[in-house]
Amino acid sequence: MEEGWLSCGELTELTGWSARTVQRKVANGEIKSREVGSRQKNGKPLREYSTSTLTLRQQADAEKLTALRDKPRKAADLCEASDSTQLALFSMQPSTVTPIRIPVANKHEAEVQRRFEAIAPLAELIEVPNARRYPHGMPDGKRADTWGEAVAWCAARHGLSTKTIRRRFAQFAKNGRGALLRRKRRDKGSAGFFARYPRAAWLSAYLYLECQASMRVAHEAILRDLELLQIPAETAPSYETVRAWLKQTPAALAVYAREGRKAYRERMAPYLRRGYTDVYANQIWVGDHAIHDVECANDLFEDAEWGAPIRLRLSAMLDYRSRLVVGASWAWEGSSRAIAATMRRGIQRFGPPEHIYVDNGKDYKKVARGAMPGYLKESSLAPAGWWRRELDSIAATGFLARLGIAVTHCIPHHPQSKHVERFFRTLHERFDKCWPTYTSGNPSTRPDATTAAMMEHRSLVRAGRAIESRHPRASQFIAACLAWIEEYNGAPHSGEGMDGRSPLEVFNANRSPDQKRAPDAATLALLMKDRETRRVRECAITLGNRRYVPVDETGYAMLHAFNERDIFVAFDRGMPESADAIDLDGNYLALLQAEELIRFAPSDKRTQAQIAKSFRIRRGLEKATRETLANINRVARANGARSPLEAMAHRLKLPAGETGADLITQRRPRSAPENDEPENNLQPGELTDRLTKILLRKQDPTPSVEDCDEVEESERAAQPKEKVG
Q1: Domain of residue 336, CATH code
Q2: Closest Cα partner for 23 from 10, 33, 13?
């Protein structure tokens, strides 16, 4: 930088030095000075001081000060001696001074009071008219005939120098009590070594920031390349010098260089805050996924081995206004089906929202395919009937478009924009940590007890003894989490716009007057679920490895009418406990539930009640079938219907009571067997053997008359004898 020249006042203002310090540095040759040519009022020549020996930061500030200086210098700003400074201080009149009062923080009040006590007798003089008239009585009764004696008394009383007393009084008179705090040095944080050797500064910054090396490596590199950096060996920096200089690196610069863009955006970048009171409850939902920090044993999911160690994935939807958890579902592999199940639960309970706010994951983009972007929802650019046109191609749209729900995706890789993330953090802190298999989400911070439990569980699974594991079952974990969510919805919340109320209270108090009604079960099944064709057998259907039955007697009656027929089954893999039955024309039939296997417990009341209910339904269906048939018979006969026999008799005009006995002939039965007839002792098996021998006796397939007589005689012998009497 070019050499600049400043007046005494400008130099003291820039560096924080006193005029006496400037004089001492000039006398020691540390600062160059020159005469300007003009003189002060006291006859001494005015001088200017060089900025070449200042730090780089101070030199830059000096250049700005010189560039902005457009007024002639005043003699009062070029004071050099302490006596002239005191002369200017003494010439001040309290009535003409308008000091700038510096506020004092509470934590610094004790230090300010301690410093003020040393000049308290002098401070009282400011508020007294003609305060500089002497003699003046001091607090202990001693008489001070001059200002100097008063200053000397204060210095002796508190063990300070008169210079310190004069400086403190000048600071107090100018800026009030706040000026008595010890000021930081203006060159604090600046390193004189790196100001003299900028190449070393560039090298250390490059190694520390760009190469992400340690401070020790940067120091060793400077010592190794002293000749390249043009640093004399006797002025080589210590490690503490390098460390102190690198520690002053701006945090934003260090985080971006050493931790990456993501950390910088999360911790350093500015952000906007949203309001929560300008929308209605149930108007906007915010959704996302989170993986529980607890390892469980699988006992629910059919696509994973029973007892396998899994970490459940939670899909949750929060109401934007009230933070109420409106829907939740669990899976061990996240997908768009889990989102559909979550939203379906919320819609059935609270009704559909107008808008959802989600991230940019593939699953959320899938369910939002074809949906109206949120920024066009209330715009004149929004096409009329945009979602109705999408219904013409349901296979190509997500269920949000089918339900007419607008969608907004957050900034990519910026989770802070969704306050559902704060709910997940609360869930991890207050629910997940309660379980003995808490994993913390990071192997480096995982508890040792959890690691031991994980190893034990895997050994038991390999040995086929998963039932002995102490891992919590997935079903138990989900039931506990549902209960915890209900507790969260009813607990006071300290968030923005909540006013200490619970999410449920805020939700009920701020419902939208334009809230849309929840679609019925048939509409939700058609719009939000997958469909497969299944055949009804015994009033139930089989889907996967589960058998689904109706939840009530009405459903049984509907499926009873569709036995041995194909229907559509609408199901959601995220909700395996239920499904919907729809006929092939799209008409809703019944709500189905996964069949519960009853226990073999004859004395158990619940089991007996289940059996009784089943038989009641069976008898009811059978009775309805029997009554329907009887009703058909009765109505048809009343309308003149004839049976086929009656119709034929009517058509052929057969006489009534005609038996046709005279049209048939038959053998007259004998009253008693002949005496010479042999006894019938042949058994059915012996008769068969005898007939076989007779037929095989002759090679000619045509039997002779003798054979026929023999066969006839055998048949006659096999007939039972008639008893007379």
Answers
A1: 3.30.420.10
A2: 33
| Six token digits for residue 665 | 């002939």
Structure tokens at 98: 């308008």
Quote the DSSP letter at residue 518: P
Report phi then psi at 263, rounded to 5: -65, -35
Helices of type H across 571-721: 605-638, 644-652, 684-697, 705-718
636 pLDDT higher than 70:
yes
Nearest to 686 by CA among 717, 709, 722: 717
In tens, the pLDDT along 210-240 reads 899 999 999 999 999 998 888 998 889 999 9
Structure tokens at 506: 């805020």
CA distance 702 to 390: 83
As a whole number of angstroms, the distance between CA 184 and CA 15 comes to 11
pLDDT at 472: 93
Whether 98 and 83 share a structural domain? no
Q: Are 472 and 297 in contact (CB under 8 A)?
A: yes
pLDDT range class, residue 89, cuts 50, 70, 90:
very low
- Nearest CA to 301 among 109, 575, 662? 575
Assess whether the previous peptide bond of 383 is cis (omega < 30° from 0).
Answer: no
Within a domain: residue 633?
no
CA distance 513 to 519: 17
In a domain, residue 381? The reply is: no
Task: Identify which of 366, 372, 373, 374 has the alpha carbon closest to the alpha carbon of residue 395.
Answer: 366
Q: Give, rounded to a whole angstrom, the gap between the first and last alpha carbons of the chain.
A: 151
Say if residues 287 and 318 touch (Cβ distance below 8 Å).
yes
Residue 700 structure tokens: 């000619």
Residue at 674: amino acid letter: E
Please give the residue that has the higher pLDDT: either 711 or 55.
55
Select, from the ranges 382-386, 404-408, 573-577, 680-684, the one with the highest average predicted confidence (pLDDT).
404-408
Q: What is the pLDDT of residues 645-700, one digit of tens each?
A: 877 887 787 666 555 556 666 666 666 655 555 555 555 556 566 666 666 665 55
pLDDT digit string (tens) for 109-122? 788 888 888 888 88
C-beta of residue 5 within 8 angstroms of C-beta of residue 34: yes
Among 575, 594, 613, the domain boundary falls at 594
User: What is the pLDDT of the chain when averaged over all its residues?
Assistant: 76
If asked whether residues 331 and 225 sit together in one domain, one would say no
Give, in order, the Cα–Cα distances in Å from 371 to each of 37, 266, 285, 356, 397: 81, 30, 15, 11, 8
| Residues 228 and 297 placed together within one structural domain of the fold | no
Domain limits for position 240: 192-267
In the prediction, which pLDDT does 668 show?
A: 66
Residue 294: DSSP 8-state: B
Give the pLDDT of residue 189.
56
Residues 6 or more apart whose CB falls under 8 angstroms from that of 44 comprise 80, 81
Q: Please check whether residues 237 and 144 belong to one and the same domain.
A: no
Whole-number Å distance between alpha carbons of 289 and 421: 9
Q: Give pLDDT tens digits for 412-462.
A: 666 556 778 888 899 999 999 999 999 988 888 999 999 999 999 999 999
